[in-house]
Amino acid sequence: MGCPYCQGDATQELERATALGYRLFRCRPCQRTFNERTGTPFNHLQVVRHEVAQLLVDIRKENQPSIPLLVPYQR
Length: 75
Known about the structure:
Blueprint: E1 11-17, E2 23-27, E3 33-35, H1 49-60
Antiparallel strand pairs: 1-2, 2-3
C-alpha cells in the first residue's frame, strides 16, 4: 500500500491494528503511520466497513437506514 502522505512505496504493514480492526502501515521514508482508511472519505467514521457498506446499500434501495448504524462506535 502506498503512503497517502508522501506517495512513497516503501511501506511496511505493522503487526497491530486500529480499534476498529483496520490494518496499520508505516512509511519508511516519512516515518508516518497510517491505516487503510487514511486519505479516504471514510477516514474519521467510527463504524466498521461492513456497516458503511450496508448503509450505502440501504440508501440506494431508498429504504430507511438501520438506526444502529447511526450510533457512534463504543469501545
